[in-house]
Amino acid sequence: MNRIFRLPKGGLYLPSQKEVVKGFPIRNAVLPPIAVVPLVQSDGNEVTRLVQVGDFVQEGVLIGKGKGKHSLHIHASIPGTVQEIRPIPLPRGIEAPAVFIELGGEFDRLGKKEVVYPWRSLSHRELKNLLIEKGVVDGNFPLDGPIELLIINGMELEPYLCSEYRLLMERSDAILEGIRILQKLLDPARTLVVLEDKALDVQVSLGASLRNQQIQGTEGASGKEIELVLLEGKYPAGDPEQLVNIFFHQKVTPKRTLGEMGVTVIDIATTFAVYEGVALRKPLMERVITVSGKAIRRPANLKVRIGTPILDIIEECGGLTQTPVKVVCGGPFRGYGIFDLRTPVTREMSGILFLTKDEIHPGVRTSCINCGNCLEVCPEGLHPSRLFKWIDHGYFNEALEDSLLGCTECGCCAFVCPSRIPLVQGFQVGKVHAARVLNGRSSKDQPNG
């Protein structure tokens, strides 16, 4: 683990904002009086609702069933009575129906001793069914092997966010058990755990847990090796596309997916959820998030029930010290700004940031000065300013030909732009129009009736 791998091109060394909250252990957030559980899959598609207003639901009971084979299942995060079912806006800019559950009744798990179930004797089908049944994965998640490479992504490079760091520090044994489960499912030829080169405490913690497993002979039914590798903490080195490029020496393209390449990249939160779903038989009904930003009184790393309104999180952390200029769900680069503090915590949410004016560095958009900064930092080697001009003037075909679909929307270009041009938003708009262009082309390619 001596060699340090690096991002091939571009990227940014970001000023860390993690120190404020990094040292705080994970603690359980207070249960919400009302949990607002969205009935939506990770791809934005709705699920089939299984409850009605007035129904009493137990903690962890299935309330939404994914449509289609192996689609995502949704579970009640608290016990109680269904008070309301109606559409709500979500951070990704979509609207989805949500089940409002008023807290009441007994808990099946809270305050009870954790039961660890043996899993090594389970068949591939039994493991797969468990993960689907517990709502850990959906149809987009790779569950079949063998594959060439399994990458466990321990890089958490977005400023502020520390939830996966805390999981690695506090639950390294569980993380390794989750990796062993994934190895049995996917049968990878090679398994890498990628860690940031400067995260020495994580390296020590995970390395010690790995050695203990080897000494005790509990490496897992697969018997496969787990390699810890170090990667320079230059954003966005932790993006799946970059990890595959660095460690598999192949480039991900819109025409060649990870699955087709025989590579799977899984983050720490999902690996932990795999452990809980299989070893604890626990549905996915909570997740660890980082709450930070200068506008929140007491930053924290919290284990929060899915469906907890952000207003409850604010109260949990002592309230606001000032009105935030922006509230972001996720990190400042990849996250989504929200305007309604009644928005609930979702399964994809890694953090909630309450940012002040001096944290977001607002500015007025001006004309491009052709400084070239965006070209230098683009990890995909694209020409962001030229791409934006194509899109801004409605030349979507030209943007496609200029590798628009190769953009991963990491945000490096927008961060360094002195003209405050909304480059990433422009690329997102461009991709929507480009999809229509491509659909038009494909329909023309179809044979006549």
What report would you give on this structure?
The protein has 449 residues and is an alpha/beta fold. The chain folds into three domains: 4-21 and 112-279, NADH-ubiquinone oxidoreductase 51kDa subunit (Rossmann fold, 3-Layer(aba) Sandwich); 32-109 and 285-359, Roll (Ubiquitin-like (UB roll)); 373-445, no CATH class. Helices cover 31% and strands 20% of the residues. The protein has 15 helices and 18 strands. It has helices spanning 19-22, 124-133, 163-170, 172-186, 200-216, 240-248, 258-261, 268-279, 310-316, 357-360, 373-377, 384-392, 396-401, 412-416, 423-445; strands spanning 4-5, 27-28, 34-38, 48-49, 56-57, 62-65, 74-75, 80-89, 95-103, 147-153, 188-196, 227-231, 263-267, 286-292, 300-305, 326-329, 336-338, 351-355. It has a six-stranded mixed β-sheet with strand order 2-15-14-18-16-17. The chain has a five-stranded parallel β-sheet with strand order 1-12-11-10-13, sandwiched between helices. A hairpin with an 8-residue loop joins β6 (62-65) and β7 (74-75). α3 (163-170) packs parallel to α5, α4 (172-186) crosses α8 and α12 (384-392) crosses α15. It starts with a strand and ends with a helix.
